User: Fold this.
Amino acid sequence: GQNIDQPTEMTATEGAIVQINCTYQTSGFNGLFWYQQHAGEAPTFLSYNVLDGLEEKGRFSSFLSRSKGYSYLLLKELQMKDSASYLCAVKDSNYQLIWGAGTKLIIKP
Amino acid sequence: ETGVTQTPRHLVMGMTNKKSLKCEQHLGHNAMYWYKQSAKKPLELMFVYNFKEQTENNSVPSRFSPECPNSSHLFLHLHTLQPEDSALYLCASSQGGGDTDTQYFGPGTRLTVL
Assistant:
């Protein structure tokens, strides 16, 4: 079967750095997506990785290792507004998105 | 600000009611999706429409009936629902096709079935 694993919940301090991991086992791979979802709101697109390596976008970076079936989302200089759920999703060989259950990130002052 | 809108935002219905959820996208996309999101579970894809044609129906019970009259509008008709159908129902749209194709979501309808 296809599976995406990510931690259920993480806690970090304002101003710090946090890394949210995602491991996947899918039938084929056509890219990995990260989304942010604030409580009661729409998931919003953060990043897309299809090649190995690090993609940086301001305070957020996303890393991919296809050989290890592994990705992480790195958030720097954490702000209170970063408190949200972070969803990892992989596009499989049929170009269908397979979703993880999401990681709830709690930021403390 | 999202280019995908959903109404209503909240809905409470009895098991014998009939209601409809509406989604509209203003992004000029060709594909639209319905997802079910339950607490602490992955998003479940329900239906996919490409150019108004249904291309996916992931074994969804017949009490959920989608309708896509054009590329900008998507409906989910609900009837005789069960309490376990209570969830957040998300609509999304995308250009359609390809590995870089990115889905953009609406804010969802929080559905409670009594």
Observations:
- The two ends of chain A are 40 Å apart (CA to CA).
- Chain A touches chain B through 25 residues (CB under 8 Å).
